Amino acid sequence: MIWYTTLVLAVAGERCAEIAVALRNTRWSLARGGRESGSAHYPAMVALHTALLAGCLAEVWLTGRPFQPLLGWTMLVVVAAAQALRWWCIRTLGHRWNTRVIVLPGLPLVTGGPYRWLRHPNYVAVAAEGLALPLCHGAWMTAVLFTLLNATLMAVRIRCEDQALTAAAAAEART
After folding, report:
1. Torsion angle of alpha carbons 18, 20, 23, 24, nearest 10°?
2. Which of 101, 127, 85 is nearest to 41 (CA)?
3. What is the pLDDT of residue 87?
4. Is the separation of the CB atoms in 127 and 64 below 8 Å?
5. 142-167 tens-digit pLDDT
6. Where would I find the beta strands (DSSP E) of the chain?
7. Are 172 and 60 in contact (CB under 8 A)?
8. How far is residue 137's CA from residue 15's CA, in Å, rounded to a whole number?
């Protein structure tokens, strides 16, 4: 269980790095006229992602579930792939990547990197990680609960993001 705790703490560290990038990018975007949308759902998203990490550890430590090698190693590969996809998104979007919905007027949609194939690849990474990280050590209750709550939150988030992008494009077309 020590290796799993180390893994979850490493993912938590990665999330802290994401927050640092997001804070820097928020300042950059707002300084250039960016507009934030959907700030009301942001605290729920932070709470859910924090609960994922805590739930992974609590479920494994409290239930004493044994490591299942086939499932565990497979899910570890999925976690690594999700991290790679997330950082590919961050690199592709550059200063425009954020944990918040901030749209800069006048900038076209990004269509490179993973955005060539998926409209919201970062959310694919989040969903994959949210399912796989708990299952690395059999925390299936956390995996199921996170997946259900995340699906609900992502429906709100994607709708918010799409509306913000559509509004920005419409405003740009009027000018």
Report:
1. -110
2. 101
3. 98
4. no
5. 999 999 999 999 999 999 999 998 88
6. 35-37, 101-103
7. no
8. 20
Those residues whose C-beta lies under 8 Å from the C-beta of residue 114, and which sit 6 or more positions away, are 85, 88, 89, 92, 121
Q: How far apart are CA 78 and CA 72, in angstroms?
A: 10
- Rounded to whole angstroms, how far apart are CA atoms 159 and 32? 24
Position 172 pLDDT exceeds 90: no
CA distance 8 to 52: 10
Provide the terminal-to-terminal Cα distance of the chain, rounded to the nearest Å: 58
Q: Is 0.85 topped by the overall pTM?
A: yes
**How far is the C-alpha of 67 from the C-alpha of 51, rounded, in Å?**
21
pLDDT computed for residue 140 by the predictor:
98
CA distance 110 to 40: 25
What is the 3-class SS of 96-117, one letter each residue? Answer: HCCCCEEECCCCCCCCCHHHHC
In angstroms, the CA 157 to CA 88 distance is 20
What is the C-alpha separation between 55 and 129, in angstroms, rounded?
A: 14
Tokens 């992602």 found at: 49
Calculate the alpha carbon distances from 77 to 84, 128, 147 in Å: 11, 11, 18
